[in-house]
């Protein structure tokens, strides 16, 4: 984490250095790995143990992108050793040039899209706040990111004339959530059952937990005071046809 | 031929079944009877029927020959390899997401990652021009296809209610599955509004064991490839029996072009193997089963003198009339826990809004179905549906277990401007990739608006405290459509191209329209019917240009093992 911006619990006090955020405090999917099939165990434990090296992005690009990722998918509540790697996963995809099966006709290839956007965001930071993006305060970083999220880059930058900002935003978000929610620590956070072969499930209705799952224990918390990324009631973006990679449903 | 079952290192197809071996190999320079390009939903069924009937058949598959134990995982991100991830260009006013959304690669094709909903088309789907003045009629009727629907429902087999009230009412060979949390939401919401529902199917997922396939364990990873072997894919339902009967499946074989002889007939397929080496498989007839994008792409890439706009394209309709279904996902947050990851994503539906209702101001309709996105897919939906990012994303995902998701499955009409063409970009073999263009038209937009609002109403009625929706599209069909008139279609009702008497297309691309039913079962039923037609025609089809349009005799004797003694119940 390049900068800390901490959520607070409703009872007061910062939420930080958690081994496991979310409402399932004693739940561990990895604790069930003996019940998984061998191939799945290999793939999932590999994801936890081996963080790929950064090979695609330059050091400067990686620094800016990390600062971006720290806000589009913040982990300031997590302890350092339980932070889920995101940038290395995106870097690996681009290094291997793994595609998702298509490219929008109005978008450059994914590799170029990232490089162009990183450069543009840093230029926007210098223009608006006179400093490089990673050097800005959390609030100023989020002001710039929020303008991209809203589809109205502030300040304007010529790159968004040639690359639709909503498509880049979707690409970035989808890569980030793919890295984060593929990680078993994120499954523990949200109470997802994780791999389930060969054992399967027996309690299908009423949200009942399996014997190895745990009950939810909710608590109230607030996003950091300097953050702009809470969901707004009118937060749904305008429709642009299907966004990037909408698989996984039907 | 001996089976390898029980031996260590055997190629596994689910926990109980092994790939029969050794597989027959046909020499390339001697013509086989049929070379089938693409071993997916249609290709698998075709190869199995034709092989059982004694034809020499080779299937070329661009992707791998899956070993379900070694290659598949109970994991979302780890299932990346199941999809057609190679470059395609997508555009138009409503560009389609491709890749994992609708495109499989590897033996079994899309049936490896389908949710396995298996509703039949309604009788009205085959004649929407006559009934509603939109789209086009099929060159065949529902009743022509019905015997093969029933056959495939027994072969796969399909689990579901004994009484399915819509379209041509029918029952299903295997009993329905128990209800999951999302299905409960669908039934609850619809019931409050007086909308009829069915639950526990129809799905091509076993509710009781079937031969060497166990029944479902309700782990929710249907779309990631069913390691259990409970969900049907042609990889486990038809391909093993095809191999037992002498079919050869060549994996990692990417078809480059179909070769046309001077006499106007094709004589084989040029393809690249996994090392990029070029081969030529000679065949007396070629069947293209590459689905709605790769099928037209291959025919375009096979252009040659006299067919400069692609093979079988004298009508100029090749690549046109591509269709996807409206697939809006409506998500509702409930006070109580749902845990939507349990049970098959596909397990309850309503077709109450399937048919045209003049009151609604648009033609045709939609279905309401359960969907079950796993965490990554759900997070992506929250990006689109709520603009979630940052702490908002973390917060909504912490409530993952409180959400239920229902899908609209809406009929989008066939339009000429929705199409597949060749792009300037090339793949690693130097073959031009496909460019897909998709635009919604007035009727489509009205239908989607109505369908989306209706499903949101169902979600509220089920007791959700918050309801959001994401616009998206599901499935791909059309782009090599069948028809009676050679000037407005690519193939006849048996998939035989109008232009070239020994070149066939058999897959979802031949659909003239698509209804609001998931296309998988219809693709497989059409494939079995085409196979029975070809078998009935015998050898003359390899050299004669005579076009017999009589309905074929159904071959009940050619089903895979364990099909006998299954019935199609009907409770009237």
What oligomerization state is this entry in?
A: heterodimer
In which range does the helix fraction of chain A lie?
25-40%
**Could you report the average pLDDT of chain B, rounded to the nearest whole number?**
96
Largest interface: A-B, 81 and 102 residues
| Number of E-state strands of chain B | 20
Alpha carbon gyration radius of chain A: 19 Å
CATH architecture level-2 label of chain B:
3-Layer(bba) Sandwich
Number of helices of chain A: 8
The name of the CATH superfamily of chain B reads FAD/NAD(P)-binding domain
Structural classification of chain A = mainly alpha
What number is the mean pLDDT of chain A? Answer: 93
| Class derived from helix and strand content of chain B | alpha/beta
Q: Can you summarize the main beta sheet of chain B?
A: 7 strands, mixed
Provide the low-confidence segments of chain B as ranges. 1-7
Q: What percent strand of chain A?
A: under 5%
Strand order of the largest sheet of chain A: 1-3
Radius of gyration of chain B: 22 Å
| Tally of strands of chain A | 3
Q: What is the helix content of chain B?
A: 10-25%
Features:
heterodimer, A: mainly alpha, 8 helices, 3 strands, B: 572 residues, alpha/beta, FAD/NAD(P)-binding domain, seven-stranded mixed sheet, six-stranded antiparallel sheet, 20 strands, disordered N terminus
Description:
The complex is a heterodimer of chains A (250) and B (572). Chain A has 250 residues and is mainly alpha-helical. Chain A has one domain. Chain A is built from 8 helices and 3 strands; from the N terminus they run E-H-H-H-E-H-H-H-H-H-E. Chain A has helices at 38-49, 59-72, 87-95, 110-129, 138-149, 159-162, 165-180, 184-190, and strands at residues 8-9, 103-104, 221-222. A two-stranded antiparallel sheet of chain A has the order 1-3. Chain A is globular, with a radius of gyration of 19 Å. The model of chain A has no long low-confidence stretch (mean pLDDT 93). Chain B has a single domain (12-18, 25-558), classed as 3-Layer(bba) Sandwich (FAD/NAD(P)-binding domain). Helices cover 22% and strands 17% of the residues of chain B. In chain B, the strands form 5 sheets. In chain B, strands 3, 4, 7, 8, 9, 10 and 20 form a 7-stranded mixed beta sheet that branches. In chain B, helix 1 (41-52) packs parallel to helix 12. The model of chain B is unreliable at 1-7 (pLDDT under 50). At the A-B interface, helix 1, strand 2, helix 5, helix 7 and helix 8 of A face helix 2, strand 5, helix 9, helix 10 and strand 15 of B.
């Amino acid at each position: 984490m390049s900068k800390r911006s901490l959520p607070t619990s409703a009872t007061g006090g910062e939420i930080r250095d958690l081994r496991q955020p979310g409402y399932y405090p004693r739940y561990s999917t990895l604790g069930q790995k003996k019940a998984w099939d061998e191939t799945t165990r290999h793939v999932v434990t590999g994801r936890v143990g081996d963080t790929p090296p950064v090979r695609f992005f330059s050091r400067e690009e990686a620094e800016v992108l990390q600062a971006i990722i720290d806000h589009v998918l913040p982990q300031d509540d997590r302890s350092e050793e339980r932070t889920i790697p995101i940038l290395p996963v995106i870097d690996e995809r681009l290094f291997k040039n793994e595609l998702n099966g298509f490219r929008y006709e109005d978008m450059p290839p994914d590799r170029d899209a990232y490089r162009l956007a990183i450069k543009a965001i840093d230029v926007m930071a210098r223009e608006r706040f006179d400093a490089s993006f990673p050097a800005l305060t959390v609030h100023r970083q989020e002001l710039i990111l929020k303008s991209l999220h809203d589809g109205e880059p502030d300040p304007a930058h010529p790159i968004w004339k040639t690359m639709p900002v909503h498509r880049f935003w979707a690409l970035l978000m989808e890569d980030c959530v793919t890295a984060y929610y593929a990680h078993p620590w994120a499954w523990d956070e949200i109470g997802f059952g994780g791999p389930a072969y060969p054992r399967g499930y027996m309690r299908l209705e009423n949200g009942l937990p399996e014997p190895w799952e745990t009950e939810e224990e909710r608590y109230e918390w607030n996003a950091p005071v300097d953050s702009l990324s809470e969901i707004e009631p009118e937060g749904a973006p305008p429709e642009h046809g299907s966004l990037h990679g909408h698989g996984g449903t039907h | 031929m001996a089976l390898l079952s029980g031996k260590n290192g055997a190629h596994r197809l689910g926990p109980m079944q092994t790939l029969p071996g050794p597989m027959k190999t046909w020499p390339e320079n001697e013509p086989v009877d049929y070379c089938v390009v693409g071993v997916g939903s249609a290709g698998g069924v075709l190869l199995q029927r034709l092989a059982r009937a004694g034809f020499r058949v080779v299937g070329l598959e661009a992707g791998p020959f899956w070993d379900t134990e070694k290659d598949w995982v109970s994991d979302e991100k780890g299932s990346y390899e199941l999809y057609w991830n190679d470059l395609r260009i997508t555009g138009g006013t409503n560009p389609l997401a491709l890749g994992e959304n609708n495109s499989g690669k590897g033996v079994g094709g899309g049936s490896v990652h389908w949710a396995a909903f298996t509703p039949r088309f309604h009788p009205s789907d085959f004649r929407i021009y006559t009934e509603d003045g939109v789209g086009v009629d099929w060159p065949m009727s529902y009743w022509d296809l019905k015997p093969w629907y029933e056959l495939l429902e027994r072969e796969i087999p399909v689990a579901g209610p004994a009484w399915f009230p819509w379209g041509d009412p029918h029952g299903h060979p295997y009993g329905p599955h128990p209800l999951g949390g999302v299905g409960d939401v669908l039934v609850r919401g619809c019931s409050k509004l007086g909308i009829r529902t069915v639950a526990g199917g129809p799905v091509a997922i076993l509710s009781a064991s079937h031969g060497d396939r166990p029944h479902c364990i309700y782990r929710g990873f249907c779309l990631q490839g069913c390691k259990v072997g409970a969900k049907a894919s042609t990889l486990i339902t038809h391909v093993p029996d095809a191999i037992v009967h002498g079919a050869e499946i060549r994996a990692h074989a990417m078809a480059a072009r179909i070769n046309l002889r001077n006499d106007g007939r094709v004589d084989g397929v040029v393809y690249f193997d996994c090392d990029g080496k070029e081969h030529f498989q000679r065949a007396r007839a070629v069947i293209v089963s590459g689905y709605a994008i790769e099928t037209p792409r291959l025919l375009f890439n096979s252009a040659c003198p006299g067919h400069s706009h692609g093979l079988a394209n004298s009508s100029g309709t090749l690549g046109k009339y591509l269709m996807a279904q409206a697939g809006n996902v409506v998500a509702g947050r409930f006070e109580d826990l749902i845990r939507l990851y349990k049970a098959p994503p596909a397990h309850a539906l309503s077709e109450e809004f399937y048919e045209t209702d003049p009151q609604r101001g648009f033609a045709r309709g939609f279905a309401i179905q359960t969907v079950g996105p796993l965490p990554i897919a759900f997070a992506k939906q929250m990006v689109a549906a709520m603009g979630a990012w940052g702490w908002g994303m973390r917060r909504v995902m912490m409530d993952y277990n409180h959400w239920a998701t229902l899908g609209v499955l809406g009929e989008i009409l066939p339009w000429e401007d929705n199409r597949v063409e060749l792009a300037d970009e090339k793949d690693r073999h130097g073959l031009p990739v496909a460019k897909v263009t998709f635009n919604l038209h007035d009727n489509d937009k009205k239908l989607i608006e109505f369908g989306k609002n209706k499903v949101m109403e169902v979600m509220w009625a089920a007791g959700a405290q918050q309801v959001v929706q994401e616009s998206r599209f599901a499935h791909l069909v059309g782009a090599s459509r069948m028809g009676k008139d050679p000037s407005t279609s690519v193939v006849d009702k048996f998939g035989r191209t109008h232009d070239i008497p020994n070149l066939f297309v058999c897959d979802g691309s031949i659909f003239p329209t698509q209804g609001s039913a998931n296309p998988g079962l219809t693709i497989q039923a059409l494939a079995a019917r085409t196979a029975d037609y070809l078998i009935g025609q015998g050898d003359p089809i390899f050299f004669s240009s005579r076009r017999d349009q009589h309905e074929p005799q159904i071959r009940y004797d050619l089903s895979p093992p364990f099909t006998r003694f299954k019935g199609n119940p009907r409770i009237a």
